[in-house]
Write a structure and sequence with these properties.
Layout lengths: L1 E3 L2 E3 L7 H8 L2 H13 L1 E3 L9 H14 L2 E6 L2 E6 L1 H7 L3 H9 L2
Antiparallel strand pairs: 1-2, 3-5, 4-5
Length: about 100
Amino acid sequence: MTKCSEIRQPLREELFLPRVLHALSDPVRMEIVLKIARAGQVACGAFDIPMPKSTLSHHFKVLRESGVVASRREGNELINSLRLEDLETRFPGVVQAIIAAGSR
């Protein structure tokens, strides 16, 4: 794993399909991924998902530790983006197909 502004995230070589698919199997996490896919990058606080902050933090942690999302700190905020290049390199077409299917 590598640090990204003190946020530990897996290296490209450490991305494994079962972890990625598990992360994307939850409806809340899929909603997060689709919003980031549409916007390019989104701060953690910009998600209007009605649940406790601790639960939402857990979902971001699962996405980050699976390698689906990269998070970086900007001031007091965490900015999230999809690791599309890394995911496409490791699993060609898989994540894009899931995002396309989830956007329908």
